[in-house]
Amino acid sequence: MTSPSPVNATDIPQLSENAEVNAWVVETAELTQPAEVVWCDGSEEEYNRIANEMVEAGTLIRLNPELRPNSFLARSDAADVARVESRTFICSEKEEDAGPTNNWRAPAEMRAELNGLFEGSMRGRTMYVVPFAMGPLGGKITQYGVEITDSPYVVLSMAIMTRSGSEALSYIKPGREWVKALHSVGYPLVDAEGNARPDVEWPCNDNKYITHFPDDLEIISYGSGYGGNALLGKKCFALRIASVMARDEGWMAEHMLLIQATNPEGRKFTITGAFPSATGKTNLAMMRPKLPGWKVETLGDDIAWMRPGDDGRLYAINPEFGFFGVAPGSGYSTNPVAMETIASNTIFTNVALTDDGDVWWEGMTDEAPAHLIDWQGNDWTPESDAPAAHPNARFTVRAEQCPTISDDWQAADGVPVDIILFGGRRRTNVPLVYQSKSWEHGCFLGATLGSERTAAAEGKVGELRRDPFAMQPFAGYHMADYWGHWLEMGEVLGDKAPAIFQVNWFRRGADGSFLWPGFGENIRAIEWATQRVEGKVDAVEQPIGNLPKLEDVDVDGLDIDQATLEAIFDVPTEGWLAELDDTEEYFGKIGDKVPAQLHEQLKQVREGFTK
Ligand code: GTP
Ligand code: SPV
Ligand code: MN
User: How far is the CA of 235 from the centre of ligand 3 (A)?
Assistant: First the structure.
């Protein structure tokens, strides 16, 4: 078999008004040697053409059009199913700027190694050029980028997850700041001897690198096709690179959902929430509230960018255009809105295939079908040991398909935020909801956020995996400086700053079961938060923050007795003192740059318990 020859540099179209973009495309093609270069226009026709090509090549499965119109299943390599934090690097000039929570490599050294890997890495493949916007086109908070990729799966996913194509390209005027995002699956279709080799269902490489060059606004990703590693507008740009831009320019790039909740009197509250990965952002963003008269509308489920507006309030946008949500656990009983959202025009990755050509995963229905093809392409029955869908199987769908999408979700300059929530998965210690005593105390809540990895004995702190502000894997610079930036934003916002609350849907009883029903019932915690903002209810001041009076929490119609309610809001002294010791140790690990205000907050909380 002869191999297709690399494209000639002179044959590559120059479609950008910005000469830097054109030059980078040519330079990248010369390095990676693809068979052709395609600039993506973002049209539906283009999407359908690429999807059809993938179906013909056997790298995408078309689902039954009668059950799941215009939808597809992709099955990844078994070793390419999630983000790879161990292979993720922040390549700032100085190591201390990456901080103790990030892997660091010197930029020149990293670039040299990547250059070797990218040389010829696209041989035999199409190199796609995908211009994209993060945020509404032309908005004040919006930023632009161009992703070069050799993965058609990435092109389709970017078409769903971002505003991509010719229109986005037209905003990258000469001299405008834009982010370079280079991606290759690292599986050229030409072997070392120059012979063609066949493609596989999910090309990738055992050697993976997800690298960020914040000083150059550049991302280079190699070897993985999975979402957070390959859809470079998402975590790589919208969080790691953007958090650095935000620090330098006085705004915030956060791992947060964005919703509006309207109470029975018709007052609307805009709420953002930082919850670690797989801790319920998508579910809360699409909540169907169980309290009569309440309405929740969706603006975003994963990332919020926030900037002070002319009136001094904090305005938020969702920079994304779609949802990349966890499939397992999403079902008609827990998240009916998600189920309606993904009824059509959806790409599913690593879910199971039903005999009639539809999808299934654990938690979608109470009972599993009698026969399935599992996420690895093998026969599966309810007797099988392994789950049918990978636990991190995902759906990719446009936000506009969400039945609860807010009319404001594309507001060019965002919506003013009233409330910020922080939540982790906590079996113990952390009550259902409480309010911070100040912005600084709110920053302490964010900085100490975490989830328990293992079961914990009641009253003792379990092994706490810290995920400050849900940004542990995503802050593009030193974690302590990032905390400092939050404190500074509080000074800028002053009394216009949003109110901050801690929430926890995951507290467990002695028998290990959840004490709180969660999901649509979480509106009851949100109701209390909004009543605090309205000044309608008092709080009980405790060392950890301001807790609700139990009679102010509406548990009408829930199967929760007084003892359970008390357990949900219990603040065990012994458990908290252990946790505060753990926090002190944790601050020590983050190092000397931890802001003094946060040490002071720790001291005050501890004094509250011991005085
Ligand atoms: P990423 O997309 O990884 O950032 O995750 P996410 O934060 O959007 O999490 P998601 O909403 O997908 O939820 C992850 C898991 O948590 C799912 O299995 C949900 O069923 C479960 N979950 C979400 N909300 C609740 C809740 O209120 N209570 C309980 N018990 N589980 C919940
Ligand atoms: C997360 O892990 O927080 C996700 C999935 O939202 S990914 O986009 O892959 O990071
Ligand atoms: Mn996420």
Answer: 8
